Amino acid sequence: MSNSAALAPSSRSRAAVFLAFSLVVWFSGHVLASGHPHYADALAKSLLFFQGQRSGRLPPDQAVKWRSNSAMSDGSAANVDLTGGYYDGGNNVKFNFPMAFTATMLSWSIIEYGGRMDGRVHDARAAVRWATDYLLKAARTTPGKLYVGVGDADADHRCWERPEDMDTPRDVYAVSASAPGSDVAGETAAALAAASVVFRAADRAYSRRLVAAARDVMAFSWQHQGKYSDHVGGGVGNYYPSHSGYKDELLWGCAWLLWATKNSSYLNDLISLGANDDVDVFSWDNKLAGARVLLSRRALLDGDKRLEPFTRQAEEFICHILPNSSSPSSTTAYTPGGLMHRRGNVNMQYVASASFLLTTYAKYMAASRRRAFSCQNSHPVTHRALRALAKRQVDYVLGDNPLGMSYMVGYGARYPQRIHHRASSMPSVAAHPARIGCQEGYRSYLNAAGPNPNVHTGAVVGGPDENDAFPDDRADYARSEPVTYTNAPLVGCLAYFAGRYKN
């Protein structure tokens, strides 16, 4: 019997009660005394974070006032315009691979939970568009090329400069037929296709541009297969190498184009891939779990039996991330305080992405006849159990943890003060108009003992270690750096819980 075998009705109810009781016991003592966190406030802040990550010319309605225009000549090294987009974290480089994943997850968050965002859906669409306007330039500017990054990553990491001051080389990197990158191309296609669904009603002309570009980039990804990190220099491929290969991005891109276009050729392509690796993580690098949950939607809600294998694989992934008290096949460690702990480097990205998949698969289960599944014949896993676990993770991020600390900057009474972020840690151009040089930044600001002068509201840091300890040390990038691909899936979770538990 498979990990995700359906349970017989006679055993389901008794076992479901047992599992629900087990999960309640597992996170009892972690419920906030004042009730649920203010999810709507956290949602608003999580979206504001993206404004602090903007590159290029800032718009008149920019709310994060300590940022100014930056990288206004990006692309000039190749005689093209590549201004705009996002810096991925606390540095000043534009890495398209994680940026495209950020855009895809923001779009999926809106598609699933935009109806629960109330007045924040406009902000969410604006966050998507800041990325996709740039990705359209990357995909459309030069025929036969997909631009995949701007900035010498090694040189950038040797400096501590505000983005408004940066003078490190702004080299331009691209993939092509002779230097393929199916991974970054597949993710770019996914981002453009997912965004086309977001803007289908809000801006039809823009939606059509997005899906047309997505088709072309996906075709390029299939025709010229290879890993971009094997061909792109300048440190770009070293900071974000595709450890998982590129089949996962081909699957992911096809899954999103199938949704965006309803063209069955993408269904045939993704079935032909044979991307059957067992996974227990979902991230900017490995998209298999996300693609499987996305395809499960069509299997569960539309009854498409051709996609049932993806449903089983999605449930096997979930069995791997449940606590071992609930799943014999769990491969995920939890801290004593109840947080998933995958890796020491920016662990919150894995918490946020896994929580999004738990919340979203629970939504699909609840809307279909699939009331429960089991992990190696253990007790049944219901959609309520998945939502409870996702809520536990989100609540931990927002302060329900042994330190009583919110890991979202600006949310709650206690949050990180010294995040690893150049622009946040240095005075704004308005406060300090004179240029601050590369090494002066290290001497005067990276190693300063005080809190960051600019509160980067909504930034979710890397988080605590496996024992729930957090040093709040600016130099500790693994725990103190925020990244866009943590916030993007968290937006969806926060929107769901904001609608579920209205304050």
Automatic annotation (TrEMBL):
Residues 39-494 form the Glycoside hydrolase family domain. Pfam families: Glyco_hydro_9. It catalyses: Endohydrolysis of (1->4)-beta-D-glucosidic linkages in cellulose, lichenin and cereal beta-D-glucans. Keywords: Carbohydrate metabolism, Cellulose degradation, Glycosidase, Hydrolase, Polysaccharide degradation, Signal. InterPro entries: 6-hairpin_glycosidase_sf, 6hp_glycosidase-like_sf, Glyco_hydro_9, Glyco_hydro_9_His_AS. The keyword Magnesium does not apply. The keyword Hydrolase applies. GO terms for molecular function: cellulase activity. It comes from the Eukaryota. Its EC number is 3.2.1.4. The active site is at H420. GO terms for biological process: cellulose catabolic process. Residues 1-33 form the signal peptide. Belongs to the glycosyl hydrolase 9 (cellulase E) family. This is Endoglucanase.
